[in-house]
Hints:
Blueprint: E1 4-6, E2 27-36, E3 39-50, E4 64-66, E5 79-83, E6 86-88, E7 96-98, E8 100-105, E9 108-111, E10 117-119, E11 126-132, E12 135-145, E13 155-158, E14 161-169, E15 172-174, E16 177-179, H1 190-198, E17 203-204
Parallel strand pairs: 1-4, 3-5, 3-6, 4-7, 5-8, 6-9, 7-10, 8-11, 9-12, 10-12, 11-13, 12-14, 13-15, 14-16
Antiparallel strand pairs: 2-3, 16-17
Amino acid sequence: MPGIRLGDPGEPYRAGRHRPIPWRRRWFGSFRQWRDRGQSGFAIRYNVFSKQDALPGPQARPNVLLGHFPLAGAGSEDRYLVYGNFFQHNPSEALLQAEGRVVLYDNVFVNGGGDAIHIQPHNDVPRDMAIFSNTVLASGTGIRVRHAVGTPYRQRVLANVIAASIPLQAGEAAYNVALAYRPDLLNVAVSDLTPDLLRRPPAFQ
């Protein structure tokens, strides 16, 4: 079952456009264009993205896939703001896959069947990104960053709480709290997850 994919390299970009998002089970919340002080982009906020009932297979996709904005011209400097969301379970793919320009903060990722966040090339490359103040619980890799060799872009990973079998791979990382995977916390309330994880003495990465 497909997730949500944003960013279409074959479609002309029009600033300020509101793209309709098809409704699916357990997708709800807010998607909107934003513009402030000469910068603009697409905000994804206050959603729940769940694929806990999806089956593994060749059609498996991330819960959300963020593609790039136009490579040149109008919109080429735009970015995604992704905050206040809950990403829940995917048996085959990461909860979020992204490239382009992204600011990702104040989200909760819980996956008892694999990885949480993949930053990697898709149709373009990861560009400047800031990933901070997220809480991640994953049986696989928490945050994985594949920097595109030979590009000047920076992917900064700062001050996240990550409990996973492999908490963090690559990226410019600092002040993250890296913990062992805690399957006993998969079903706790979202509001309780971060304090429950922090009750165990952390190792900083």
